[in-house]
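If your schedule permits, I should be very grateful for your opinion on a structural question. I have a record of one protein: its chain in single-letter code and its fold written as discrete structure tokens. Kindly check, if you would, that the fold set down in the tokens agrees with what the sequence suggests. I remain grateful for any guidance, and I place the record below:

***
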Amino acid sequence: MNTFYITTAIDYVNGSPHLGHAYEKVLTDVIARFRRLMGDRVFFLTGVDEHGQKVQQTARARGIPPQQFCDEISQEFRDMCAKLDISNDDFIRTTEPRHKKVVRDLLQQLFDQGEIYKAEYKGFYSTRQEQFLQEKDRNPDGTWPEIFGEVTEITESNYFFKLRQYQDWLIEHLKKNEDFVFPRYRQKQVLEFLSEPLNDLCISRPKERLEWGIPLPFDEEFVTYVWFDALVNYYTAVVDKPGFWPANFHVIGKDILVPPHAVYWPIMLKAAGIEPPRSLLAHGWWSINGSKMSKSTGNFVEPIAFAEQYGVDALRYFLIREMSVGQDSDFSLQQFLARYNAELANNLGNLVNRTLNMTNRFAAGVIPAAEAPGEAERELQTAWEKTRDEVVSLNEGFQFHIALERTFAFITATNGYIEKRAPWKLGKSAAPADQALLRTSLATMAEALRLANALLVAVMPGTSGKINAVLGHRPAAVWRDELVWGARLTGNKVAETAILFPRPQTTK
């Protein structure tokens, strides 16, 4: 059995979870669930980044200890994962002893190897981004980009990691591993960043300026730079789990690809003699109603509240259906409701209820055996085989939005098959041939529903389970076996009805 280790970025606890956090968790969950279906032994990690100046400042402003503040916000992220049906195997916090130990061991190793040195630094510092800046970071007019917030000039002694000496190695590594970053065009952005000489990385902050961090093992008067601390979480979680490192994918937002994940992280690992991750998956950003997300202006989606109002799987479906992995996308209630009504309620929901209704009406609620498949049945089976192969391949390439489009095209084709066979007409006929065709049509529509549902389990696990339940179906242990057209449902007693996607009650 292959192992598959996948992580999200760990979310900074300076604020509550928003739609971008929800999307990253759902996307990673869909990948993890799909790999489990494909037979891999999966380890899925998420968590929170709890150190740094912003946390220290926010906690002081509220008059509470930093750990108490972290505990509160960390729980919000845990609650979001639970609400959104995220199947993570571990939830890591950078304030946990297990993580602090790995960070300090790694720092001590690099220091002993001569990879870390002390020097005086004079330059510009962004508190918001918790990083030192260079002249090249300025706007053409000499101002600092808004992303950096307030920038101050400081002079202080710090410890530096010899990042620069590994630049040539990293360039060569990227050229040899063209799929290191997905989508591939973002790998070119990394190489463009590396076209200019790297500076060594300042990996400490003096305690008189920042107390909330992991102390350096070789100088307790300094704490670890938040990125050097945070990135190590991916390794911490599996250091005692043989077979999972290196990570198959780190799923991150495009804003933290360069330099943290694509430059700092592989070089840190290389210097420590640890194999770098196999790939980074950099996803895009969500706007809301065509504008940047902003809580202050009300242009904001609170994921838990939204899921409670419209359904967890409806939100999961929209996030995966609407965004092409790697690209940006827009979230609007109007577009959400359009997909909810047309695709979930009217297409999938309608197929489920037609299947249940007609099986109860014409077969006493028991799915009959197919007796004499005709051209219409063979056409639907052919459509299934094409859909199945396409969807599996698309999912392997992270093209989940297209895979869902293909799956729902098959659901549409199944509803079209029902219109063509018109079981309600066949049920009125006493002719033996019509009764045989009725039984065949009922078996065919139930089997097509079962198969389509098998393709939805990674994206809509709750809904998929409900559909299996109303069909009286217990899925096979091997998912691939579930994708073969057959007679698994013959003799199953079905439920009378199922309301999977009730008409949403909106206030707008």
User: Anything to note?
Assistant: The CA atoms of residues 37 and 70 lie 35 Å apart. Residues 332-482 form a domain with the Isoleucyl-tRNA Synthetase; Domain 1 fold (CATH 1.10.730.10). The longest strand covers residues 116-126.
